[in-house]
Amino acid sequence: MTFREAARRVVAEGILPSMSHQRISQLHLKDPDNFPEVQQVGRSKVIDWKKARPYFVAHAQKAAARDRRRRMEPGESE
To answer: Bridge-partner residues for 39, per DSSP?
Structure first.
């Protein structure tokens, strides 16, 4: 599926509250070791959702952990 469709699916499945195809493109460029394999079809980049879904779930969990740490009061521990 295209990056645009993957972004729509991330939100539709409740993995993250928002996602754009631009953000998926950034993740692809910034995290090449972990991001699922990307194929070029015409002008579009596509990914296999079965391989991409676990990546986005893990990404969401890491983001939630970062947010939780930012909201903690000084001296609080997880």
So the answer is: 46
Please report, rounded to a whole number, the percentage of residues in the chain having pLDDT higher than 90: 78
What are 44's strand-pairing partners?
A: 41
Phi, then psi, of 54 in degrees rounded to 5: -60, -35
Output the 3-class SS for the chain: CEHHHHHHHHHHCCCCCCCCHHHHHHHHHHCCCCCCCEEEECCEEEECHHHHHHHHHHHHHHHHHHHHHHHCCCCCCC
* pLDDT tens-digit readout, 19-48: 999 999 999 999 999 999 999 999 999 999
Residues ≥6 apart with Cβ < 8 Å to 48: 1, 36, 37
